[in-house]
Amino acid sequence: MKKVLRYCLPFLATLMAMSFAVAQPAGFTRLSDAEKTALLSAMNDNFQTMQCDFRQEKKSALFNEVSVSEGVMYFKKPSSLRWEYTKPTVSVVVMNGTKVKVTDADGKEQGKGGRMYRQMAALITGVVSGRELDDGKNFKSEFYVGANAYWIKLTPANRRLKVFFNHLELTLDKQKMVAVKMFMNEKEGDSTTITFSNHKVNASIDDKMFNLK
What we know:
disordered N terminus, 12-stranded antiparallel beta sheet, about 210 residues, single chain, 4 helices, 12 strands, outer membrane lipoprotein receptor (LolB), chain A, alpha+beta
């Protein structure tokens, strides 16, 4: 289970777009409720599929070191997700509906998702589409806008999410309405930063990418 969590937590953060207990960034102003509603609606309507590259940097407070991983993310509505690490080692996390599977470079299964992972799957797909960003049950959220980006600050509101991280923050490209950077402040002082690039919105994605067999 620890091995599964090691894979799932960074990618959970990835689509969850996130927050940090600091003042709003310079040059950003807080959105009104009406503007926030319009943003969430636009996020939900923006795409049916999403593919992008990611670079994940995980900082360890204990060992004072940074580990870097790279890979590709695939998402297809309503609830299919593939989080594929390609460097430095290969591993894949697949979520399809309420089921989760983790495999290594040889395709060997490393873990199956129980109730906790089904909940994570529902949460992640909800965040990607914008549905979970202001539900009030999972997060306390603040929305800000700048010249070229939106900044969303999220603080876990329930015990289950507080176990995983302290604060999360997400930066959205204002024109393309896609996530370009995410920061997750984890327990024990660790942190994960994920940057997204080469977005392909509404490109065809074969359902086989989300096959759990």
